[in-house]
Amino acid sequence: MEDNRGEIEAYMYRYGYDEKEAEAAYHLRQARIRTGEMYRDEAEARGTVDEALGLPNFPTIYAQMDVMSSVTPHFDALENLLAWRVLARQYPEGWGGRP
Q1: Where does residue 17 rank: exposed (0-12), middle (13-18), buried (19+ CB within 10 A)?
Q2: Which residues contact 18 (CB under 8 A, 6 or more apart)?
Q3: Per residue in 39-69, pLDDT tens?
Q4: Which residues on neighbouring strands pair with residue 56, listed in sequence order?
Q5: Cβ–Cβ contacts within 10 Å for residue 98, how many?
Q6: Residue 17 in contact with residue 25, Cβ under 8 Å?
C-alpha cells in the first residue's frame, strides 16, 4: 500500500476523494489498465496484430468491441459512483437552478 501512497494522495487532492474513495479510484484505474494489457498480450500471442501496420486484425477488433461493450461500462459506472459521492458531499443541497 505504501508504494502507491503518493498516487492515492494525488487522487484525494485532485478529485476531492476521501481516503477510501481515492484507494478505490486508484485500484479501478489499475484494474482497467491491467485488463487492457491482458487483451493486448493475448492478441499479440495469437498473432492477431498486423506487424507491418502495428494495427489489430479482425479477431482483435472483435475482442476489443466485446471489452468496450461488456467490460468498460462497468468500470465507467463504478468511477461515476465515486464522482457522484464527491459531488453529493461538496454540494449537499444539490446543484442547478433554484426556485
Answers
A1: buried
A2: 12
A3: 777 766 766 556 666 665 656 666 677 777 8
A4: 49
A5: 6
A6: yes
Q: Which domain holds residue 55?
A: 2-90
Query: Does residue 97 form part of some domain?
Result: no
pLDDT at residue 7, as a whole number: 92
Q: How many CB atoms lie within 10 A of CB 60?
A: 20
pLDDT, residue 4, reads: 84
Domain count, the chain: 1
Q: What is the pLDDT of residue 1?
A: 43
Q: Which residues contact 24 (CB under 8 A, 6 or more apart)?
A: 78, 82
The CA distance from 27 to 44, in Å, is 25
If we measure between CA atoms, which residue out of 72, 11, 80, 76 comes closest to residue 36? 72
Question: What's the pLDDT at 71?
Answer: 83
